[in-house]
Design a protein that fits this description.
Low-confidence stretches: 163-167
Number of helices: 7
Distance between the termini: 12 Å
CATH superfamily: PPM-type phosphatase domain
Number of strands: 10
Number of domains: 1
CATH class: Alpha Beta
Largest sheet: 5 strands, antiparallel
Structural class: alpha+beta
CATH topology: Phosphatase 2c, domain 1
């Protein structure tokens, strides 16, 4: 597993904090890998704290549910626990017992992708959920210009291939959608699971450009931690958002030390 969270060019220029966050852990009793990636919404005044709290509380709840025998964990339970974490922050910040949803969102709104990778003799099983517009993909580096491409999105794209305008409208935590977008798939030996904020997903697009080719080449095998961070810090004109990427490969894949 590799993860990097990079402050975008805009936040660097204005000396502002990174509003993305990511966290991952291993549940030792079951061998499950749990993870969370969040992108604080720019209109929220303390978005960086919302993203960090969403990741922290999400992992806390998933590890607890796994210890209770839930495999995979109940994702609605998980995201509601994360939403309560944001409300808890707002109560302390506002000194108010029951802040309004709009008040919580105005302070701490964030997207979230949370999931678990479970070991299985036939190949690891990936289960995950999403709130907002962060994304998840299966990367098959061996593919080139096939109809499905090298990047298989695990959630619906923000826009269709013929859309001319990229929408930034999201419905983030603390709102929990009903139904909650949940998906599951098996990770093949030659594939990598990618979880990323839109700072990665927007320049990636459908994966058929230079950004897609760059990551398909360098993520065919797990790179060193420093090189992975260097890759995530790529530059592409007009894309200046914070950028976070988490990647997981099957254990059969060789990785450098």
């Amino acid at each position: 597993m590799r993860v990097a969270s990079i402050r975008g060019a805009k936040h660097r220029y204005y000396e502002q904090p990174r509003q993305d966050a990511a966290r991952a852990a291993v549940h030792e009793a079951t061998g499950n890998v749990v993870f969370a990636v969040a992108d604080g919404v720019s209109s929220a005044t303390s978005a960086e704290f919302g993203a960090a709290e969403a990741c922290r509380s999400t992992l806390e709840r998933m590890l607890h549910l796994l210890s209770q025998g839930q495999e995979p964990p109940d994702f609605r339970d998980v995201v509601e626990f994360a939403a309560e974490g944001l409300r808890r922050l707002a109560r302390r910040r506002l000194n108010k017992e029951e802040p309004e949803p709009a008040e919580v969102a105005g302070l701490y709104a964030t997207t979230l992708v949370a999931g678990v990778v479970r070991p299985d003799p036939a190949g690891p099983i990936v289960s995950l959920c999403r709130i907002g517009d962060s994304g998840a993909w299966l990367l098959d580096p061996s593919r080139t210009t096939t109809p499905t491409g090298r990047y298989q999105p695990l959630f619906d794209a923000k826009t269709g291939p013929d859309d001319l305008i990229l929408s930034n409208d999201v419905s983030p935590l603390p709102h929990v959608p009903d139904p909650l977008p949940v998906t599951s798939t098996r990770l093949a030996a030659h594939e990598a699971l990618l979880i990323g904020t839109d700072g990665f997903g927007d320049p990636l697009g459908e994966g058929d450009g230079q950004v897609g080719a760059l990551f398909a080449h360098h993520l065919a095998q797990p790179p060193t931690l420093l090189w992975f961070a260097h890759l995530v810090d790529f530059t592409r004109e007009t894309f200046d958002d914070d950028r976070t990427l988490l990647a997981i490969w099957p254990r059969t894949t060789r990785a450098p030390r």
